[in-house]
Amino acid sequence: MPGTDLDLLIEAAREAGRIASRFAGTAQVWDKPDGAGPVTEADLAVNDMLERELRDARPDYGWLSEESADNADRQSTDRVFIIDPIDGTRSFIEGSNTWAHSLAIAEQGRITAAVVFLPMRDKLYHSAEGMGAFLNGNEISPSERGDLIGAHVLAARPILESHHWQSDVPDMKRSHRPSLAYRTALVAEGRYDAMLTLRPTWEWDIAAGDLILREAGAATSDRYGDPLRFNNPDPRVPGIVAGGSRVHRELTQALANKGDAPRL
Question: Where does Mg(2+) bind (predicted)?
Answer without folding.
Answer: 66, 84, 86-87, 205
